[in-house]
Amino acid sequence: MTFGKGLAQGLAVTLRTMLRRSATAHYPDNEPSLPPRSRGVIALQEENCTSCMLCARECPSWCIYIDSHKETIPATTEGGRDRSQNVLDRFDIDYSLCMYCSICIEVCPFDALHWSPEFAYAEGDIVDLTHDMNRLREWMWTVPPPTALEAGSEESKELASFREKHEAGVRGPGPERTEKDAGEPA
Ligand code: SF4
Ligand code: SF4
């Protein structure tokens, strides 16, 4: 009798579960809809990087590898001094060690690192999980644009100065145009 009751209860649970809507997404046929700021992969904007090593020093997993050399830039004015600048030779991130903590992105003083929500970069060989600077650069194309400012909030001084130059006729891509600008000559 107890056996029959237990069986009936078990079958009832099975039936209830069968009728419930499945929470499992059939990836890759169904791509998950992730928030735009998801931590998928780190993208490198190479032009912004000064090889200051801050990200590599702060990374708790020690999975950022940077090599650079110095180049001399000749003075542009007579009697001026030559300048030297760091040029990146290597910028690798080993995603088999990375714990997606975001510390490297937060400490970078020059906005050279950004999160992209892309996550489909699984590899059969662990060695291929180290992305070199060319691959990290390519991820930049998948970084979502910054969210629009809230209505009434103050524009950042960098954007304001860029806009002023753009409006004064200095050629360049210019900041994103607002509805107010639309229709005005560039
Ligand atoms: S997210 Fe964290 S662990 Fe990954 S590279 Fe950046 S600092 Fe290192
Ligand atoms: S902290 Fe930023 S600028 Fe400095 S090495 Fe890292 S990515 Fe480059």
Short summary of the structure?
By secondary structure, the chain is an alpha+beta fold. It has helices at 2-19, 54-58, 103-107, 133-138, 157-167, and strands spanning 41-44, 64-73, 83-94, 113-116, 130-131.
What does this structure look like?
The protein is 24% helix and 17% strand. The termini are far apart. The radius of gyration is 26 Å and the shape is elongated. With 186 residues, the chain is of the alpha+beta class. Mean pLDDT is 87; it is low at 172-186. It has five helices and five strands. The protein has helices at residues 2-19, 54-58, 103-107, 133-138, 157-167, and strands at 41-44, 64-73, 83-94, 113-116, 130-131. It has a domain at 34-147: Alpha-Beta Plaits (2-Layer Sandwich). The protein binds iron/sulfur cluster (2 copies).
The whole-angstrom Rg is 26 Å
Q: Which structural class do you get from the secondary structure elements?
A: alpha+beta
Quickly count the helices. Answer: 5
Please provide the ordered H/E string of secondary-structure elements.
Answer: HEHEEHEEHH
Query: What do we call the CATH topology of the domain at 34-147?
Result: Alpha-Beta Plaits
- Summed over residues and divided by their number, the pLDDT gives a mean of 87
How much of the polypeptide forms β-strand, as a percent range? 15-25%
- Read across the widest sheet, the strand sequence of neighbours is 2-3-5
Number of strands: 5
